[in-house]
């Protein structure tokens, strides 16, 4: 087995020259107040050990990583029916793009761009009504075995007040009759799920079921079917980094999902889940250092899926 503790130390050293690059997200004002120099990385093996480096206790806003949780819940509830409302192809467009939606009659390309995640949250709202956010949070608590995880009210309000593009997206989708609930109810849940605060240890833990054919290894409980786990991993690989998904697959070679809060989760099937945090982003809205750290990790360990 590779010496993961040493590999994490090497990665931390090798990323140092990159700290001058990238830019913290500021279109959600409350996100711009984070410490731009922060770095943390956690590896959680399927059974047993975990390895950590950096500020791994620091909780940050999970943002689009939440889309993995909501897509999992929606796929579990609706199965293939969900694909009538949200597709499973890469978009090749930025995370908050409006253009494709009009050409494609309000059916978002995939559940990991904002449009698709909003439809997914709407689908959950049809089932769980006013308890939708509570259901999402409880799912996160189950995955992490940690009920202290909550959302951040300041980040939620900040995004709610500045969510012009997301409001445009949901209005456009609703005009195509692909939103079934009240716009405000869906957006409140969407912004709350994005502002859930977790650290790298908790996030790595939360993704283990995807490394384990859909079964939560702690409780040995099947959360979704192996086939559904395969589909979620496939979508993370092809769509998890918006218009940089190809680049991430090319450099890192693992299913992964990023968030504009600076986190990236990645899955090594049958082996482990990883989370890295560094809030400065590249031009496609993905953590710049996080992407590099994961590239170094798969290069040093040969643990890419390819
Ligand atoms: N809450 C963010 C938004 O909707 C999510 C985007 C992301 O993390 O990539 O703009």
Automatic annotation (TrEMBL):
Pfam families cross-referenced by the UniProt entry: Glutaminase
Enzyme Commission identifier(s): 3.5.1.2
Binding site for substrate: 64, 114, 159, 166, 190, 242, 260
Keywords (A to Z) from UniProt: Acetylation, Hydrolase
Coiled-coil zones: none
The keyword Hydrolase appears for this protein: yes
Catalyzed reaction equations: L-glutamine + H2O = L-glutamate + NH4(+)
Molecular functions per Gene Ontology: glutaminase activity
Signal peptide: none
One annotated GO biological process: L-glutamine catabolic process
Gene3D superfamilies reported for this sequence: DD-peptidase/beta-lactamase superfamily
SUBUNIT field: Homotetramer.
Matches recorded under PANTHER family: GLUTAMINASE
Similarity section: Belongs to the glutaminase family.
Name the record gives this protein: Glutaminase
Organism: Candidatus Marinarcus aquaticus
């Amino acid at each position: 087995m590779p010496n993961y503790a040493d590999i994490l130390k090497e990665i931390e050293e090798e990323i140092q020259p990159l700290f001058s690059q990238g830019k913290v997200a500021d279109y959600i004002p409350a996100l711009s107040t984070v410490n731009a120099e922060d770095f943390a990385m956690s590896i959680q093996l399927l059974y047993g050990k975990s390895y950590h480096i950096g500020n791994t206790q620091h909780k940050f806003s999970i943002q689009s990583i939440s889309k993995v949780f909501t897509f999992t819940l929606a796929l579990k509830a609706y199965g293939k029916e969900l694909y009538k409302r949200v597709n499973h192809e890469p978009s090749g467009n930025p995370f908050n793009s409006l253009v494709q939606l009009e050409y494609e009659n309000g059916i978002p390309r995939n559940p990991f761009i904002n449009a698709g995640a909003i439809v997914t949250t709407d689908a959950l709202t049809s089932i769980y009504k006013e308890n939708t956010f509570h259901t999402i949070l409880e799912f996160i608590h189950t995955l992490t075995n940690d009920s202290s995880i909550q959302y951040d009210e300041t980040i939620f309000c900040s995004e709610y007040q500045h969510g012009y593009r997301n409001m445009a997206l949901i209005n456009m989708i609703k005009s195509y009759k692909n939103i079934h609930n009240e716009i405000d109810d869906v957006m409140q849940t969407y912004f709350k799920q994005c502002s859930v605060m977790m650290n790298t240890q908790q996030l790595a833990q939360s993704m283990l079921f995807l490394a384990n054919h859909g079964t939560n290894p702690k409780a040995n409980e099947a959360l979704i079917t192996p086939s559904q786990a395969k589909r979620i991993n496939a979508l993370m690989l092809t769509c998890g980094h918006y218009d940089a998904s190809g680049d991430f697959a090319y450099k890192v070679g693992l299913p992964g999902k990023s968030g504009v809060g600076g986190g990236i989760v990645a899955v090594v099937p049958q082996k482990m889940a990883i989370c890295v945090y560094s809030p400065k982003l590249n031009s496609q809205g993905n953590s710049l250092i996080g992407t590099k750290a994961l590239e170094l990790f798969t290069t040093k360990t040969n643990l890419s899926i390819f």
